[in-house]
Design a protein that fits this description.
11 helices, 1311 residues, EGF-type_Asp/Asn_hydroxyl_site, mainly beta, calcium ion binding
Amino acid sequence: ICLFSNSSQICSLAPSSTMERGVMLAVCLLCWSCSVCVVTAIKRADMFPYGTLSGDLILAEGDDETSRVLSLPKPLYFYGSLFSQLYVATNGIISGQDLPMEKQYVDDGFPTDFPVVAPFLADIDTSGGRGQIYYRVTETPSVLNRVAQEVHRGFPDAKFTPTHVVVATWENVAAYEEQTRTAGPSNKVNTFQAVIGYDETDSYVLFLYPEDGLNYFGTRPKESYNVEIELPARVGFSRGEVTYLIFSRTEGPHYSVTSDEQSVKNLYQVGNTGIPGVWLFHTGNRYSFDNIVPASIGGLLDTPPTGGHGLSLYGEFEEYPDNTFDSDNQEEEDDYPHTGGDPEFQPAPAGGDHSESLQPASPDAPSSPSEDSGNQLSYGSEDVPLTSEPRYNSEPAERQYAPPNPPERVPEGDAQRTLKRQPQVTLKHTAFFFTFFSRFQQQCSQNAFCSDYATGFCCHCRPGFYGNGRHCLPEGAPQRVSGKVSGTVTVGSTPVELNNIDLHAYIVVGDGRAYTAISQVPEPVGWALMPLAPIGELFGWLFALELPNSQAGFKITGAEFTRHAEVIFYPGNQRLSIVQTGHGLDDHNHLTVDTVVSGNVPFLPPGAEVTMDPFKETYQYYPSVATSSSVREFSVVSAERGSESFSFQLKQNITYRDCRHDNRAAVLETLQITMERVFVMYVKEERILRYAITNKISPVRVDPTGPELVNPCYAGNHDCDTTAQCIPLEGQVFQCQCATGYRGDGHNCYDINECDEGLSSCGAHSQCVNLPGSHRCQCQSGYEFGFDGRTCVAMTQCVFFFSSSAPSFFLDIDECSSTPCHISARCINGLGSFLCQCQPGFYGDGFYCSQTEVRPRSQCEQHRDRLQSGMEQGGPPSPGAFIPQCDSDGRYQPLQCHGSTGHCWCVDFRGQERTGTRTPPGTAPKDCDRPDEPVRPKTHCEHHRDSVQTTSPGGYPIVGAHVPQCDANGQYTPLQCHGSTGHCWCVDSRGQERAGTRTPPGTQRKDCLPSVAPPTVRPLPRPDVTPPTNTDITLLYAQGQKIGALPLNGTRLDATRSKTLLTLHGSIVVGIAYDCKENQVYWTDLSARTINRASMATGAEPEILINTIDLVSPEGLAVDVKRRLMFWVDSNPDIIESANLDGSGRRTLFDTDLVNPRAIIVVSSTGTLYWTDWNREAPKIESSSVDGQNRRVVVSDGIGLPNALTYDSSSGQVCWADAGTKRLECVSPDGSGRRVVHPSLNYPFSMVYYRNHFYYSDWRRDGVIAVNKDSSQITDEYLPDQRSHLYGITQIIVLSRIFVIKCVEIFKCFK
């Protein structure tokens, strides 16, 4: 009989005359495994004596005080070093050297730079009489004896007789509080004690936390920038910096007892000495000492407070609901035994009549532990034995968990004897001993390994994967996020409820682009939430493009975290709270994040546009929390209000579970995230709110666009596949490597099916399900994952069998209890499984029985039923999934059609598709009864295509893989597009991508040359359309992230009709040109390093023409309408290039004798190029023919910084505006006729000529200035509402119809 008394916590074994001792032992062992004997916490009276009557010194009151030196009569060993003096500090620590200022250590985790014994390291303040701190060194025999007893109880094999003891006590001490934060000081105070006992060779430390001693569990950083965070107290030891190689220093060893707030809360509830609140550690040895060794006896409170959590000594276990030790509800409450010791050890019962526990020992524990039952130490009303088996042993780096088999000892009268292991406890698949161990093993990802350290264990992602070890994702692969958004948002004065609407995000890890879409957003909230880009910024931080010496957030947080953000809008002071919770990875390895928003936001007019400039934000990293605070500005442009500027303040903290036992993985204290492009949009018709942000993470003060980071991997402008990693090499060289779980050349990657290729980690009784870049294992019916998280074992419940020889128990579930079989069948339960058998006279498989004989299910029927039940996908059937059709005899129907896509194809008797029979929707299907025609050998394209398709009859590719497209002859189609990412590119006859042809989604695709010559077709004549006569002239100007339109009324600037033509988030538009023949505007983007164009038609989208790694700093741009060419200068490599207007035919015209080329123009009528070079040593203006011939200098004297350049078509002169000389001048192409038009400009950048007027963009005025050529006077000025530098400027013709057909020379378009 196993007796458990909740009042006295006594575990006893009562002899039975009818039950053999072995049977009794097995039953009690089982009872013990489901229950834990506990004792009460220590009281204040149980602490070591302290105060002035005990001879203590008192530390001065204050926030950051350190005691006078406490000289030791004899030195002590801490770790392996000798210390002859100690210092006691306000902030809950004892040190072997004088302490630095608190700001250098009080908010940091371990290790510290100096030696520390820390019973409660936090920002403590005893000012104003808020507590006392006592300390002394003593040789009092009663204190020495008590320390000796404690050490002998925790370390029975230790030969230790202390000669001196240091006692430090913090009594009723308060936490530091800012005066402005509360109306008065808090009444929460803490009491705790540290006791150091030592002799000539060893030192031991006791930490004591009385029952009511801890009332706050951490303190707030003084420099937290108004972010509401509290850092949990640090408890443990640190050796400090140690010297090596004479002059060098490095971090010494350290040891943490706590890891988060919950573990601090439980310091008085648990202990490693058998008494809750009492902690013992071996802290130094004269001869050899690697790191702190804890005692590991255990001990739990009899009644833990409501709301507590399970705790390990090392703070690295899952948090489970309280174990409240109700004897009436023992089964439900005791999920697993709590322990204050090493996770490999079960807690020891203490108290009562037993000097020994029935707990398993370490595999390395001695078989005959020391016995000293005569010595007992009294705590309150409990008698605690001083003897115990040793609970700590050195172990290898990675533990192999196995059921312990220790010798068991039970009392018999007044004596004790050791029993042999006669009663065998048979564990089938999963014993309850493993229930405890499996909690630790299953915390690691299946793509991680578990490593054990001196202070606990950590999970580490395997090579090819990244994360925090608990959650690991394949490196280089794009990531997806899904979740729900809920809450109440008040827009103006109107509350709007969001009821679990969908959020989806897609992140291209290779270049840091994060796209977030929230569906079904009601219209008033949709417009108002456009500035709330921080909702999507979380995903950008998690998967940002990493620059050297940095790491993205997912490597720190994994997939489980909580983000609290507060947004305060100005000038209205509206406040909005954002709470985003990561719940882990789903079955498809997608991150699941739920978002709750609540509060007020300002009203934005319907149809408004929101623009946000690029910005940088610094993240501060603390143990288990990352914080940031920033102020953002944004512009709102609407028809009702025009352009308005607003701002908001963002304060956020992201909390997560970290693992600091492996001190190799130290996190940088601060990192900087640069959001280079921010795009926000609300689509009214679809009710979708979209955020698009490009994110890079780096150390603080690193410029992501600096010259040292021009490697395309860091710039994000490489051409690697979205499922590939960009690996930077020297200079601008890089390598594309397909992500883990993908295969290919890095430019085109496709998924590896680990299930088909035998590469999975699934064990017996499990099924492999392929995922993009990975796979998962699912157990067959009747099985569940075992302790390792990979092996499937039978679903279990305890079933006991008693025999005369030995008791046994198995773990099984009776599946027949749920009546799974047909009514005319009988169910036969077995270990880990069951069997359905039709009764006599019935036929079938047991799940269906009839009196007529039923043929067995065919391959087609089994295939069909698996898909319909969801077994093939490991869940419910996917909407739109292909289901094969079977005939009445169970054979595959010859013609198979996909109900969702409309594709049809013929199959053979195995259901395999017959090559060449697939037809698209809307076309007549093949006659599958006709014999196959002779099949030509498969081409390279067809082999490539088939290799990435699944083996299903539908022939559909794995989600996310690129499947090459082949034409009817099996050749690669010239244009290849990725169905998942939307990227398109041209290929040659071998399927290899042609450089410079890749286009991102949403942009115009390239006109690719076919890999096989097309048939000759005569061109159709084009109609001769006369352009309309009613035209307007409009100036286009570049201003950072937008292109503005400024109409002219005659020659006057018409500011009333100005508008934004195109918003280009994250861009820096510099050069701008216009093609009046095709009505298109062209521009260079200095930020994205691209050349682009867009049609002037309503709703047209930008198209990237050139986006290659050798385009570094494109500035001036010119379009030759007559020859259909464009020209540009690149001021970084100092070259001038040309290309066709579609970006093809690119060539370098000049790459020598250029220093700082800036402006460039082309005169189509003469075929002449002009450009400026504001080399400060020798500035000049040059010219050449459009083919790069006849290069010569036009002007080289009397100029300074010739920024702007234009052509006066009326006089045939070239004119320039000089930011150095401040003059506007003109000269004939042969160098004659030079004259000054205006002598004192401000700071011109770009210029255009129209009807006797020069219009130039001015950086001093941030506007457009008009100068009359004849009067040399400034006649007009336009200053945009948004004040920032204007760059390029050009002129366009705005027609009453949308097309222009004939344009011989650019300036004739405007006549």
